[in-house]
Amino acid sequence: MKKIFIGIILGIAALIGAGIFLIYPPKAAYYTQIDNAKREENHSDGGVVDLTGNMRYLYTLESYSSDGHEKEITFGADNILKDNAYLKLEYAPIRGVLSWCEVEWEDLPPKVQSNMQRY
After folding, report:
1. What residue ranges define each of the domains in the chain, with the CATH number in brackets?
2. Which residues pair with 80 in a beta bridge?
3. Residue 113 DSSP symbol
4. What's CA 4's distance to the chain center, in Å?
């Protein structure tokens, strides 16, 4: 009986932890440079759940963390973004890109600048 009670308590704690992780995920900043040659139009497949966020365009670009680690990230936009613009992406595991904003070259960390071209 004691083992069942401990198992139930551990199960509830795991569910609460998973819920908190999904609601308040650990976020990381990634930086990327827009390349419209890698832009795709987003077509809905008619499913009930649309994981692309109903964005008209999808970008899959090489992105870099502040310490220079590379990761290919896909995110959406309603409009065609300015070619060669620098973006800061707020990225969370499982959920993907939560938000993005355009930044200037001077705002990029030095290790990110070494992986991008200046325009």
Report:
1. 26-43+52-113 (2.40.50.480)
2. none
3. H
4. 39
